[in-house]
Amino acid sequence: MPTPLDVTNNSHESAKAAHVNMMTDTIIANLPPEGLRSIVRGLLGVDNKNTAAFESLAIKYLDATNPASTPTFFTPKDNQPTLAFHVYRARYRCLMGCGKAFESLQALCEVARQVKETDAALESLEQSDLEGTAALIDSDLVQAITAVHKQLSTTSGLRPLTNTEQEIIQQLQNTLVECDNTFFQKQQPSPFFRGSSSLETLLSHPKKEPVFIEETLAYRYRPSSTAIETKLGNAVVPRMFMGLWQFSSPAWGAAPATKIFKDFQKHVDAGLVAYDMADHYGDAERTFASHGEFRRHAYLRENEAGRIYCATKWCVFEPIIVTPEVVKDAITERLATLQSSRVELLQFHWQDYNDHQYVEAAKLIEQDARVDNLGVCNFDTKHMDEIIESGVKIVSNQVQFSLIDLRPTFKMADSCRKHDVNFSHTAHYAKCGGLLADRWLGKSAPNLFDPDMTPSSRKYFEMITVWGGWTLFQELLATLSTIGEKYKVSISVVAVRWVLEHEYVGAVIIGARMGVSEHVEENLKAFGFKLDEEDLAGIQNVLDQCRAREVFDAMGDCGAEYRQ
């Protein structure tokens, strides 16, 4: 068994304890758990300096409550997850969230071992109660491996694994292989297809040019010349991209790989052929193109691969030293994961504006012949303009834009018009994490941590609060519902159509919960009508009452929320 990692050494911290007054202690002792969660989230949002202290205290708590033994996770015969499994799963998810990724992999290794020993391995997994639980565990594996990547990151790339870390990874790989073999012997699909693929990518960490250049050149995106397309750089692309950020966490739900690929195919059949992903969206890139072979194999019918448009990202969250080799390696890693010799759109995010290397990095990306088009992601107007005015051609800036987040209308829109160089503008969260929907009309405000609230809906509920509050939001929903009745579409479709009406918006990005739920037909309805002057005036009447300008002044320009 791998040697346990050392408990975090906090000897460098000062030996002190702050006093919490009686009244504050009374609040903490009596608030319900969902209330405490909402308040903690609020404190972290007010000042991100609180995050380090929060994670440090979480680590201390996890270390102090480490279970003395491993419980049984599944009931005999019917393979139902036990209460102990849910407690154990919550623990390893906390571990991956606060920088103890390898400890979370150790825990997941034990879970996978117990899955291998269930009765489900002796019958059809798809007909077993274990299928849904296995999909959750598979998604957990993907997120834990993403956390490992983050933990290994340095200014010059990923650092080598230590001996202890290699031992943990090797044991997990062995357990997953044994689990696969057990299921394969009974002609069952792998329960952990996504996790195994992610682990293989971590172990190989490719930095070599893909060897399939001739093959992938045949898979270049070819537009279909439909009415729902627009010009983006040197390509004609759909005005609706499917966003794959839900692959980053099972918080949006989880599904077996077979169901995921079926949903991909349904989107392609309907003409939704453009996909937005990133280096940190779990296994989105791998599922899209690599091990899942969605783009390269039988999941697509003959000649369909050339219809698929890929937009991915290189996101620099931590300090790096920008050199031609570092940038080239970053692009090569994206291409290797995508199993492609080039990428149609590479979107660049740079976290720290005080480090001005972002201009040089953008120049180096643009100069790389393997990148068809360069976009940026969550750049504000000032720094986007700086890159453009340095001579770099940017075709898109992916930022938040919706009826609840109007910040692009204050400065970004004018810049889009000013730089008439095929500059386009992609908008995500047009549906506000699912809150701009019929189901919320006439309903009271949700609790942030209700079971059906996702990270996206939590984020946008907080945005609604500063935008104008739940009462004004209900007025907006009622207005959109009236317009929707006129065109026989839902509130969500009207909200998306409103974003598309702006001439500086090249495309909207709609989150896709592949294998969990899909709204293909509904999403396409956004192209079946246009809002008239009466519709726009009705919506504007509500927006005139919101605090859009105050939000812009307080939060800052586009992307500022990621840097506070």
TrEMBL record:
Any coiled-coil regions, as ranges: none
Methyltransferase in keyword set: no
InterPro entries reported for this sequence: NAD(P)_OxRdtase_dom_sf (IPR036812), NADP_OxRdtase_dom (IPR023210)
Keyword Nucleotide-binding found: no
Residue ranges constituting the NADP-dependent oxidoreductase domain according to the UniProt record: 240-542
GO molecular function, one term: oxidoreductase activity
Keyword terms of this UniProt record: Oxidoreductase
Domain of life: Eukaryota
PANTHER family for the chain: NADP-DEPENDENT OXIDOREDUCTASE DOMAIN-CONTAINING PROTEIN, PROTEIN TAS
Annotated protein name in UniProt: NADP-dependent oxidoreductase domain-containing protein
